[in-house]
Amino acid sequence: MKGIKFRLIVMNFLIFAVWGAYLCSLGIYLGRIGMGAHIGKFFAIQGIVSLFMPTLIGIIADRWVPAQKMLGICHFLAAIFMALAGYMGYKYGNDVTFGQIFPYYALSVAFFMPTIALGNSVSYNALTQAGLDTVKAFPPIRVFGTIGFILSMWIVNFTGFKDNYMQLFVSAAWGIILGFYAFTLPNCPVNKTAKGASFVDTFGLRAFSLFKDGKMCVFFIFSFLLGMCLQVTNGFATPFLDAFGTDPQYANAFAVKNNVFLSSISQVSETLCILLIPFFLKRFGIKKVMLIAFVAWALRFFFLGAGSPTGFGLVLLILSMIVYGVAFDFFNISGSLFVDQNTDESIRSSAQGVFMMMTNGLGATIGSLCAQAVVNRFVFNPSVDPNFNIMSGWSMAWYVFAAFALIVGILFAILFKYKHNPQQA
């Protein structure tokens, strides 16, 4: 029993270590090579591929290739393309163009994003085969995924890879290790009965009937709007912190030199806040919990706008990292539980797919592009004012994001009709 738990811990650790090597530091590298105006595109592609790749890879794993082998294949391919992106950065240095690096990065992300769901499938299958309760056994295992993400961030931060192409090679190295490791995991059976499923059931389209339910329709719409916040800080928080280095007053501050490490406090907070969800859902219900998430996102953005790397400003930056755990978990995990509790068992899995599509797909994609437009307007457009101050521009961008989260939260409070039943978790 303990053996399979440890093996799944290693798998989850490696999956998220692959992601943590670049997700929060890529923006710094792109800014250093003159691609600051393209950061949103690099993060939007994650949402775009999430609209279809997890479904396609999931069908292959269900019908033809066992999930653990598909996990290994996807990570091998993702690692190869990420290494090619890194090679472009190595070969051309600061002269590398968007067209030279982005296609390889996009292909890597396309094969990586489905592996999060594949990892869950492998975990559930192995735990079930071991006779364990997945609801109780999986969360402590999944926590090590976040630990892997954090450790990978720290490696990139303290090796100095955060501002160069080496972070892409680190990600590729984790992926190669996981690719081999995945083939040693317990076998996941192929679901041969899926061959007789209808087109509608195969692609989870029946779950879209939930939009006929007024409550669920409003919930999904606001999930999309909240999902727009998800990639904003992933893409722009560390470039913002890195920009303080242009000011002699802050250039040598610990928070500037180790901005990826500072950002990792967000993931530490995320790990701890998971433990608060059962209590808050039971006590307050999904509407109030989601409202807390909206307020937390607004505070996250406001603290970033008002913060600085020293003195009280540093306290505000640390608070912004801490509140991220509430903003992320109270929305993502609580929202997933709400969908599970309010959908029929026959469409429960595909309903989760709709939730992910609205948040990590449409929300993250449109949010990344809109965030880039805001940052371009206030940060990467100094010609508007000859006395332009880049840090003032960043502050204005964060205040715009904070206002967005607050306004959407107020609309959610008015439009989402929900009566909490304390008897439900």
Describe the structure.
With 425 residues, the protein is mostly helical. The chain has 19 helices and no strands. Helix 2 (26-32) crosses helix 12 and helix 18 (348-378) runs antiparallel to helix 19 (390-415). The longest helix is centred in the C-terminal third of the chain and has 31 residues, at 311-341. It starts with a helix and ends in a 10-residue tail after the last helix. The model has no long low-confidence stretch (mean pLDDT 89).
Task: Provide a concise account of the structure shown.
This protein is an all-alpha fold and 425 residues long. It has helices spanning 2-20, 26-32, 39-50, 53-63, 67-92, 98-112, 114-129, 134-158, 166-182, 199-202, 214-227, 230-243, 254-257, 259-263, 265-273, 277-306, 311-341, 348-378, 390-415. It is built from 19 helices and no strands.
Name of the CATH superfamily of the largest domain: MFS general substrate transporter like domains
User: What count of domains describes the coordinates?
Assistant: 2
β-strand amount: under 5%
What is the succession of H and E elements? HHHHHHHHHHHHHHHHHHH
The CATH topology assignment of the largest domain is Growth Hormone, Chain: A
- Indicate the radius of gyration in whole angstroms: 21 Å
**What overall form do the CA principal axes indicate?**
globular
CATH first level of the largest domain: which class?
A: Mainly Alpha
CA-CA gap between termini: 28 Å
The helical percent reads: over 70%
Spans where pLDDT lies below 50 across 5 or more residues: none
The number of helical elements comes to: 19
Total count of strands:
0
Structural class: mainly alpha
Q: Averaged pLDDT, please?
A: 89
| Biggest sheet overview | none
The CATH level-2 architecture of the largest domain is identified as Up-down Bundle
